[in-house]
Each structure stands twice: as C-alpha cells, then as structure tokens.
Queue: 4 jobs
Job 1
Amino acid sequence: MRIATIARTTAETDIAVTVNLDGTGTYEVSTGIGFLDHMVEQFSRHSLIDVALRVRGDLHVDQHHTCEDSAIALGQAIHQALGDKKGIARYGEAHAPMDEALARVALDISGRPILVWNAMFTQPRLGEMDTELFEHWFQSVSQAAGITLHIACLYGSNNHHVIEGIYKGFARAMRQAVAIDPRKGDAIPSTKGQLGG
Ligand SMILES: [Mn+2]
C-alpha cells in the first residue's frame, strides 16, 4: 500500500498528514486557513491522492509557518509513500483551464527538487490568505517530495481562478506521475537505477 503518515511538531506548528497515493480523492483538510484548505482539497480531488491534513499553526504571528510547514509535511508524506518509486510513470504534465485562466504544470519526480514559477497575482490576499505564500507553498512541497516542478499561468485575470487552475494542474500532473505503469514492471524509471537525485 502506498500510504504514509507524517507527524511534524515544532514550536511554530503541529501537523499530522496522511496520504494514500492510490486513493479516490477523499480528503479531510483543516489548516486553519480556509483558502489553503480549499486548494489542498482541489489537489486531493483531482490527483485522486487521499489527503488527511490537520494543522495547528501559529496563525497569531502570520500564515507563513502554517503554509510552509503543511507543504513540507505533505511533501514528506508523498515522498515516503512513493518508497523506492518502482514502476512509477515519473513524469506528469497538465494544462488546467479555470474559466478565463489557463495554468500549465510540468513535473518530474526526479529526486532533484526545484521550482520554476511563472505566475503573478494582482491581489495581496485571497480570502484571508496572502497570495505571496502560494509560490512558497509549491517551493516547499517540491523540496520535501523531491519534485522538479515547473508552473506557469499562461493567462488569466481572476486571481482565484489563476491559483485554482495551478492547483488543479499540479493535481492532474501528480496523478500521472505517481501512477504505476504496468509496462515498467518493477523497474525504477531511470537509467541511473535510482531516483534519489
Ligand atoms: Mn474556488
């Protein structure tokens, strides 16, 4: 079973997350930031990765630690659930339209984390969430899960649509990349024989 649970407690946040890579898109998300919950729920629903995420963060300071640490924990859980990565498709890509906005996400579960981010927001906040934190969220998840992650918003004017398209594109691309390709059998999809970076 490709399931993993991470518990992560620091002076700033207390987090429990469980993922099932072979799930059905069932989620239970509570970060204390309503808009972030909405985005992680989109990720689960469209990747078909089950996500149970509970965060108690220092929101009296600001949203930074809650946002960053929840992405790290989610990334660690994905990394752990992938195990030795035998048989995975490894690559994923998606164009995700959200009304007038179009997001493009291309990724490689390579073990070499990097985020290339080409998206901008014209509003400082969505709901109560600071829009500058979205890039940081993807940076953190990429780092923790070992994903080469390229994200672009090709166009779009409504900030809610832009970020929702990005999360849905990430979800669709992850669904492809973590899928087991039956033609690969037990092979690790790298000529190096490992996907550790
Ligand atoms: Mn929405």
Job 2
Amino acid sequence: MAGETFTYPRDPDQEQGREWWLPAPPDRAVVGTAKMNRNQAGNGSHVASASYMVDPAHAGRGIGRALCAYSLEWARDAGFRAMQFNAVVETNTHAVRLYRSLGFTVVGTVPEAFRHPAEGYVGLHVMHRPLV
Ligand SMILES: CC(C)(COP(=O)(O)OP(=O)(O)OC[C@H]1O[C@@H](n2cnc3c(N)ncnc32)[C@H](O)[C@@H]1OP(=O)(O)O)[C@@H](O)C(=O)NCCC(=O)NCCS
C-alpha cells in the first residue's frame, strides 16, 4: 500500500489485510472474484483467459455468470480474439454448464489429467469461445 488512499496502517500482513478487506457478516464482503489475463505470451497473446471463484455460501445466485459475462466483455474491449480456459475439471458440472451457456465449447479433453480427491483421475476440458 502506498499510503495515499486509505486510512489503514501501512504494510499489513496477509491476515490483517484479509480482515480489513473481507469483513465478517453482517458487514458487506467480497462474494466473488475473477482473474483475467492473456492465455499465452508472444504470438499467443491475442487469446484471453480467466478464472472465477464464488463464495459457496452465495453460489447459484448468478454471481459466477455475471463475472464470466463481464470478463468476456473486458476481453473483447481489450482486443482479444477469443477466451480460452485451459483446465476445466470435467466433473465441475456447474462451471462447465455455465461456460457452455455463455457460448464456450469443449474443444478437447485431456484424459485423466486431474486427480480429483473424491472421483479419482478425471479429464480436463479445454474450453473456447471466439470473441470476433
Ligand atoms: C463455478 C462458479 C464460479 C459458479 O459461480 P455461481 O455464482 O455459483 O454461478 P451462477 O449462480 O452464475 O450459476 C451458474 C450455473 O451453475 C449452477 N449452479 C451454481 N451453483 C449451484 C448450486 N450450488 N446448485 C445448483 N446449481 C448451481 C446454476 O444453476 C447455473 O446454471 P444455470 O444458470 O444454467 O441454471 C462457482 O461455483 C465456484 O466458484 N466454484 C468453485 C471454483 C471453480 O470451480 N471455479 C471455476 C474453475 S474452471
């Protein structure tokens, strides 16, 4: 923290930062987050990627859909030609269904590439959606 924008003490550790930014209910808190980035460097940098996490206590209320839709808009506005997810666990049915409903297709599945703690070896989908 540069100390120019908040009244928080300078240089908090991770736990303090978490307490300040993610207050316990009934205070407001971050319930979902998205990370957006280029999928590859150099001549692969025209394809975007993204990841999402929604607090399980708030799942199924459209937050993941809103985050994913926003990241697609962000990627299109930033000039990316497609969005690609490299490793969607095939048993993550909520995520796979969400991405399909927003125009992604499974372009391939790497067999048994993920060691699921309950299901054993399962596939990883590569999912793709053109933006142009
Ligand atoms: C995948 C994830 C981001 C979806 O977020 P979300 O806010 O729950 O998603 P939404 O409410 O927008 O719903 C997306 C779809 O999943 C379904 N869904 C999500 N959670 C559900 C639940 N607990 N029970 C039933 N359906 C659920 C919704 O019904 C919806 O499908 P539909 O619109 O076709 O009915 C979230 O579950 C998550 O953070 N999972 C753990 C991390 C993860 O898997 N990230 C993605 C890695 S590729």
Job 3
Amino acid sequence: MPVRRRTVIFARATPPPLPELSNLAAGGTLPGILRQLSGLGGCTHPIRLDGHRTEYDVDATTGEVGRILRHLDSSELPAGQLLVRCNNRRTTRCAACSEVYRRDTFQLITAGLRGGKGTPEHVATHPRVFATFTAPGFGPVHNRRTDGRPCRCGTHHDQEDEALGSALDPDTYDYEAAVLWNAHAGPLWRRFSTYLRREVAKRAGLSQRELRDHARVSFAKVAEYQKRGAVHFHAVIRLDGPGGGETPPPAWATAELLTDAIGAAASKVQVDGPTIDGRAHAFVFGRQLDVRTIRSADFNDGQELTERAVAAYIAKYATKGAETATGALDRPLKFVAELAQLDISEHARRLIRTAWALGARKDLEHLRLRAWAHMLGFRGHFSTKSRRYSTTLGALRDARAEWRRAQAAANEPAPETTYVLAHWVFAGTGLSDAEAWLAASLEPAPGTEGEPTRG
Ligand SMILES: [Zn+2]
Ligand SMILES: [Zn+2]
C-alpha cells in the first residue's frame, strides 16, 4: 500500500475518499481497520512497520523450541502494516501524541514537587524554586510596555500583533549573536549548573567536594522561545539531602540560600564562543532573572506560585518548538530556498537564514547550524540522540506494547518459557486518505478540540 502524508486537521470537512472506502468495505476490512486505528489513540502520523513476530513454546527440560504459540504478520493486518503511535512531542506535529507527552511531563514535574511515582512525599518540604533564565538583548524589538506607553515605533501593539518580538531595525539587529547564543544555550546551562553547586557550597561553608556529602542540587528544565526567537529556560531547582530526593536536606538549605546562589551563578557564568570575522563571541545570560519560591498548594492564597502551576507551565512548553516564535516551521529545512515559501515572519526568516549561512563555516561544523536552523540554532534537550534513531526505537517500543495488548486480550495463560523471533522494518509514516477519514470519524483526539496555540 502506498504511504502518503496527509494532514487530517480538517478531515471532517473534506469529502470521504469514496473509492478507497468502498474497496475496504467490499473486502470486509473496515471493522478491522477501525479497530487498528482506535488503538492509535488519535495519533494522526503513525509509524508504519512491515514485519512479523513469532512466539514459540520452549521445552523447559530439553530447551528445545517447540510449537508456535502466536504469530503476528503485518501483511495480515487490516491496514496491511502494523501502525504505531508517532510519539512526537510537538503540538503542531501530532495533537494526540503531544498531549500524551504533555501529561507525562506534568506527572514527572509534579512527582518531583509533591512526591509520587517512586519519589517520597517529603520532597514537598525541600527548598525549591522556579527560575527563568533569559538571553541578553541583540537589539531593540517591537514590544508591549507594561507602563501603557507605546512601543518605540510609536504603535500600541495588541497581544496578537505579529510585529511583536521582531527587530525595530533589522539592519542593526545582531542576528549572528542571536543564533549563536541559541546554539550555546545548552553548554551555558551546563556550566551554570556547575557554578550553582559551587555557590551553594560556598554559602554552606563547604568545599564543592564536601557538598556532595551534605546536599544535592536537582532540577528539571524546559526551553521556550521568546517571540524574538531567543531561547530561554524555565527550571524547577530543588535542594535535597546527600541521597537526592530520598533524603531530607540539611538545616542550612533554604529557598533563600538557593535563590541567592542562583543569582550569583547566573551572573558569573560565561561560555566562550567562536571568533567570526575578527569578532570574538562570548555568551552570558540576560540580566532578567526571575527566581520564585514554590509553595505547596496548601499555602496558596492566590498569590503564591504553586506546584500545580509550575508543573502545568513546564508541561505546556515541553510540547512546543521554535514554531511558537516563527509561526510555522517545525521541521528541518532541506534547502534554504524553502524559506521563501514558508508563512513565517521576516524576523524568523532572517534568523533562519543567518543560521543557514553560519552553518556553511567549517569552524562551526560542531554546532550543526543547518540541521538546527529551524530551531533558530538551538539543538534542544533531545540533542543526545538523533531523531531517526529515537523514532525507530520508539516505534519498536510501541510494537512490543501493541503485542502485549494483543496477548492480554487473548486471555491465555503465558507459558513459562518462550522463544521470540521478530523482525520489523520501517515502512513509512502517516495514514492513507481513507484511514485518515476513518480516524477522524472516531473519538476526537485529546487536545484537538482546543484552538491552535501560536504562543
Ligand atoms: Zn502521533
Ligand atoms: Zn513597535
């Protein structure tokens, strides 16, 4: 079956692909396909796999492989292939899967704040703050002022104004530094976390080495794009005892000490960058640093920052990429010429073009600026694995889960020893026209009822 990419957001409004549907109906595969599609939980860009999985009985005494217990062959499935969720974290790519990701992130952050899922409940009593780290300025941009005065251009921009965040004077805006800052944001954060431990130790009267026997600093962070296209970080930072979240922090560990140490570390940290055309770049955080103590829900009087608010905030931004700043681009560019066709702001176009141009330089090869041009130079927190590798691993994880579900449904007692032979090959992504139409006729996918977010 040919695999086509298709957007199903407006599938309800499109006419049904009648010939393909009537073929499926005539073949008697419609109910089966609907069953397969409902197993995707609303994923609109599933991974398609060709292959098979066979489970054999093994004789416990002789170790000999015996009869076939179960066999799954993708060609015998109603859709002709095994369909597994895409697991994409981005809202713009897959509403259903990003919703799962958002909920998982919410659970993960909440567990670190309140306990649960293996973390003890007393973490709620550990000092913890919610901190926002920004990028420095790269030139004046159109903005909304809090004092009610107009933007420097003389306009009162409304919240939806696309000009917000774009350069007042594109000819003097420092696009080069803006892109390179994003590209060094990860290393800057890593160095900051080292400095932070040093500053915490200093305030406790300990050496860095001694600190480990008394306390640990742990954090969860998320990157977000500001409208001007600069990455900034939101982080939950917590002080624990020497054994991490399992152990209570020492008496000197307070939210005030932590806040003070964060301020000192953030103002001192610097990462040296490349020298381009005689200009030596160095990267620091912007002066705007916001650190707030997180209170537990019980103390909330409507003013305090609560655990729930923090978890919801982080989870929301975990499902977004640079498209929140650029408006449209959520995947890598193959050719810079594609830029002309995209419905993005001129400011975003300049940032991407700058990343692309810098990406041609041999001395900046390690920053992989062309591959990450769509992220405005930022390589993201998923930089440790290549996209393709993770997609395939994720797909196989899902294939196993799919198999387990099928097994459970069969309601057979599991034999003690089995031998499994499986082979899966990536066959493509997406749904055919008829599958997409059928999928849209199932339950609405979580997250698709809301309006599209262009934060
Ligand atoms: Zn999906
Ligand atoms: Zn303006």
Job 4
Amino acid sequence: MPRTTAHRAALAAALVTPVLLPLWAAGPARAHGAPTDPVSRVVACSPEGGERAGTAACRAAVGANGAPFTAWDNLRVANVDGRDREVVPDGKLCSGGLPAYRGLDLARADWPSTRMTPGTTLTMRYVSTIPHTGTFRMYLTKPGYDPAGPLNWSDLPEKPFATVTDPALTGGAYRIRITLPSDRSGRHVLYTVWQNSSTPDTYYSCSDVVFPEAKQEQPEEKEPERKKEKEPEQKKPGQKAEAEKEEPAASAAVDDSPGPRPRGGDETPLASTSGPASGPSAPVLAGGAAAVLLLTGGAALAVRLRRR
Ligand SMILES: [Cu+2]
C-alpha cells in the first residue's frame, strides 16, 4: 500500500491500541524499529527506557557507548543479504558491529530482562512506525550459554527457532507469534534479525530473557506450588488454550489479525520484567506509559510522520 496510507493506518492503530512503553514521547524523528516485548537492550537503555534506563547495565552501556541510545530504532546494516555471520563480527552481535551502538555489546549478566517460560507460545512486539516488508529470524542462545561472556555466533544455533515473514503491523508494532524452545533455563539472549525486502537493510536486536533455573528431573506432582505461582503471571486464561489449539503449527505463526480482536495476552505483557528494576512498579510504569502515550503519542507520531 502507498506509504501515506500505511502511515495513516499505523497512526489510527496506534491511537486505538497503545503500546506499553512511552516510545513515542516527543523526540527526534525516527522510523524503522526494535523489539519492545521482550524488550531489547537498545530500547531498555534508550532515553525512553524508563526505569530500565537507570539500571547499572544501561548506565555502563551508555558510558561505553559515549552517547545515549536515542536512535533506538536505527540499528541497521545495509546490504548484508543474509550474510549475517560474515558481516557482523563475534562479540559485536548486539551492536550489529556498528560503533554507534558498541555499548550494547558489553558482556554482563545484569541487562534489563524479561522472564519467559520455556516451550510457550507468545506474541513478540517489534515497534515500528514506518512499515517495511521482510523476514524476522529469532534465535535463542544455546543451552549452557554464559551471559557473562561476549555474545558470539557460536552461542547461537545455526538455525533460528522461529522465522516470520511480513507479520501484521498493528498498534504501531509488528506482532510476531513464536513458540520458545523448551530446553532453556537461566539467562539467555533472544537475538532478532529483521532482514528487509523493501529496503537493503538488516536490523539486529538483543533481548535479554530469563527462564526458570533448571530443576532436577522430578515427577510433576512434586512441583505443584511453583507451577501455580507462575501461571497467572505469564499468561491470561485463554492464552494456553489458544496456544494448544495452534499446535503443532510450525515454530512460529504470524499473528495476522486485522484489528483489535480480543485475544489473551495482547493487552498485558506476556512476560514480566525482572532484573534490578523489577517489582511492583513495573505494572505501574506500564500503565503510566500507556497513559502518556494516549496523551502524547498521537501528536508526536503525527509530527514525526509529517517530517518524513
Ligand atoms: Cu526503516
């Protein structure tokens, strides 16, 4: 569709369905995108990252970077054409090898993170205001990954666990249905590669995620308490049924619902934030951010679109 139409559609959707981060507060003109759920390092540590931006990891990242991550949605490399492993050097996966984002490559185990449950199906959000066509490839670091070391290509499986082409852009974000591998525990990096087909660019993102620590192999009956604790937090009722219904679909399915069709998990984050800035303030932050967006998002976005 023509760009102006797309912009109008994106704006309309943005006004109906707020995202959970104040990404569209007044700021420099921008386009492109980055994952917001699970939140990417560049978004978490951007000036719009809220509490997360104040964490030790983000402060160190900005320090090492020498400049703030204002252009959180502009982490892209031209003309890679799928040769990610040749073009992006080991240890520099999170910056895409771009000096302007080098702070994101710091090897540390305390980046703002998102809790996840192995084997679950969920909807990733990748915020964007200007639509591009292309394919998203999602990788998860291998079992045994050491988050205290640099992220190298050998830490990622050869093949992505999910691949989605041209997902729906609703509410200002691409909705990407993924089913997580079931054999991860502890802290990992969800590495997202968005290879555009409508531009020469490929976008790279690191989202830090934390799975429950591995437990001993035990009969299910032995762990009822822990399970009960986790369920309501991770998904709303109905989400599970839906995930089961969709299985055994491929490891990822495009969420192509055209409108605000009610579905479990779309109104609330599927996974909650953890890490140094976690706690009861997270929902409050999200709610406040949504309000901020409702008040300022439309105007800021309109200004931005006009600038384009
Ligand atoms: Cu772009």
